[in-house]
Amino acid sequence: MRAWSGSVRLIVLGGTVLLTSWFLLLLLAIRLLPPSLLLALLAYAGSVAGLAIGVFGAVRYAHPAGRV
Fold this sequence. Notes:
Layout: H1 6-29, H2 37-62
Helix pairs in contact: 1-2
């Protein structure tokens, strides 16, 4: 089995962090988790970080470093 490249790992990691933070925010919104400002801020930060990591991985995947 072929190993994943670094950019694909970044895309998967970013998507996982993004979806996890959205799920956490959903649980906060439907009140399955008690409302907490710190938890909400961490979830929003995770959402932004996951999006940034995924986009960075997608850019690296589309434009490999060794090719001009």
